[in-house]
Amino acid sequence: MKKNNKTTKKLLSSLLKSKNCMSCKSCCKFGENDCFDAPMFTEGEKENILKKFNNAKFKKIGKLWKVVIVRGPNKHTFRYICPFYNDKEYKCMVYDIRPFDCSTWPFYIMKLHDKVIITLSKDCPVILNNKLDFLLEFTEKIVAPYMIKYALKYPDLITPYRNKAVILLDVTDKLKS
Ligand code: SF4
Question: I need a labelling partner for 84 at 20 to 30 A (CA). Which of 54, 99, 163, 172 fits?
Answer without folding.
Answer: 163
